[in-house]
Amino acid sequence: MAELMRLSGNDDTDAGAGVARPQAACVGLCAALDLTGQTPCCGPLLLALVLLLLLQAQLLVCLHELRDTLDLVTSATPSGPSNASTLQRLPGAIIIGVRKGGTRALLEMLNLHPDVEVAKTEIHYFNLDENFRKGLDWYRSQMPITLPGQLTVEKTPGYFTAPPAPRRIWAMNPAVKLLLIIRDPAERLVSDYTQVLHNRIQQNKPYQPLDELLLSQGHINPKYKALQRSFYYQHLARWLELFPREQIHIVDGEALIRNPFPELQKAETFLELPPQIKPDNFYFNVTKGFYCMLSAGHDKCLDESKGRPHAPLSNEAFQKLCRYLRVPNQIFFRMVGQRFDWC
Ligand code: A3P
What we know:
The chain starts with a helix and ends in a 7-residue tail after the last helix. It has a 5-stranded parallel β-sheet with strand order 3-5-2-6-9. The protein has a 3-stranded antiparallel β-sheet with strand order 10-11-12, with no helix packed on it. A two-stranded antiparallel ribbon has the order 1-4. Helices cover 47% and strands 13% of the residues. The chain is globular and about 60 Å long. It is an alpha/beta fold. A hairpin with a 4-residue loop joins strand 10 and strand 11. The longest helix is centred in the N-terminal third of the chain and has 38 residues. Adenosine-3'-5'-diphosphate binds next to helix 5, helix 13 and strand 11.
């Protein structure tokens, strides 16, 4: 049999060439067996050989087809690591702020959508020069792997207040969708201070009470950084110089806390996603005091840094803060064409 195969030239994978050779192969075989011209032997042998070669040709065609099919299946499989269809893509939507507005909750809740993949950590690419210098390929390499048609979402609340961020994001993609989650800027300031305080305590660094930072000789201190971050209209003005208003979706942070589903529905519409997030993706966790998420049997609450008790601030200072923010808030409401129930 080995001799038969060798003579039929089976190293040639071209099926057509395999079919054209039986005659020569048989003559060669008869010669090898010293039977050339002896018809009684060569007749049935020739027939058997032809059949064998036809079978071999058929087998080769089948093998070709099988290999092509396997190639096709492999290139369409979503999870293959060397797959060209699964890629890290630049974000189609960015949550730009505000710091302590509920940005993590919004990101995690959007991630419930099957067509959304999110960058797990804050990238700080457009606000920090040392990251921006690393270039767009570095930024892309920080993104999650997505399938074609999936939306990549990143959140870095520091973008909202960083002067170069709007211009840099616009240069990356002027059509990128922007989400801005806001909350009462006075509450936001206290939450902002609480986070800084927490970090300083953890690092054994000294800290000042909030009243001291916020008030200077009994008046609101406009130089206090956390206060400046609460002047929403000033920051938004920079974004509106480049992006049309309808490209920035405002999410009401307080409404998201009270009942996440309606805010998520609006966000789905803005992001042009098919409605997939359902009311039963959320349940109120009494222990946490906030809504948590449910998806495919998994239960997820945000960590303890979200929704922690706020640092103390005297009622007098808080009232001064509310009065101080009244005009900036009015300007912001006019800018966005929407009012919010803030202090
Ligand atoms: P507080 O810690 O002041 O309560 P960010 O993610 O931008 O840092 O925002 C943190 C804020 O998200 C928290 O502020 C909390 O109020 C708010 N938040 C909104 N929805 C939440 C949720 N489901 N679980 C926990 N915190 C939530």
